[in-house]
Amino acid sequence: MNKLSASLEDYIEAIYIVLEKNPVCRVTDIMKLLNVSKPSIVNAMSILKGKNLINQEKYGFVELTDEGKKMARRVYSKHSSIRQFLISLFDIEYSDANALACKIEHVVPENVIKSMENISKNMNPALKKSLLKEKK
């Protein structure tokens, strides 16, 4: 699987998110989601197309290839796991946890993500309550 920069991971994740909610993905959808300029998107789409992660005809819809879907699911899964960990352990608001997860997902190795998932799933409710009390 291709290794992507943090920025390209954000683009492929954004395409995945748009396609989960809508039947098609347009460049303008990505612009809105990531709050980036059209030239930045055009450049990123060119790179992702060159890596065989997306298909896009000129001025057409953006589609993920099979390899692109695998990579997008992996990035989105990491993001979701980190967000859930932050919410469950630190009682952080969803939007704050989401923004923080977006930054963390690019630097945390897979084994740490797995540990975060295990902690989130197996946290004793009494322990969580105790940790939240200490926070206040």
Tally of strands: 2
User: pLDDT under 50 segments (min length 5)?
Assistant: none
> What is the structural class?
mainly alpha
Q: Could you state the order of secondary-structure elements as H and E?
A: HHHEEHHHH
Assess the beta-strand content as a share of residues. under 5%
Number of helices: 7
Number of domains: 1
CATH superfamily: Winged helix-like DNA-binding domain superfamily/Winged helix DNA-binding domain
Estimate the helix proportion, in percent: over 70%
- The CA-CA distance between the termini, in Å, is 44 Å
Description:
The protein is mainly α and 136 residues long. It has a single domain (1-136), classed as Arc Repressor Mutant, subunit A, CATH 1.10.10. The protein has seven helices and two strands, in the order H-H-H-E-E-H-H-H-H. It has helices at residues 6-21, 27-34, 38-50, 66-90, 94-104, 110-122, 125-135; strands at 54-56, 62-64. A two-stranded antiparallel sheet has the order 1-2. Strand 1 and strand 2 form a beta hairpin. Helix 1 packs across helix 2 and helix 1 (6-21) packs across helix 4. The longest helix has 25 residues, at 66-90. The radius of gyration is 17 Å and the shape is elongated. The chain starts with 5 loop residues before the first helix and ends with a helix. The mean pLDDT is 89. GO terms for molecular function: DNA binding; DNA-binding transcription factor activity; protein dimerization activity; transition metal ion binding. Residues 4-65 form the HTH dtxR-type domain. Belongs to the DtxR/MntR family. This is Metal-dependent transcriptional regulator. Keywords: DNA-binding, Transcription, Transcription regulation.
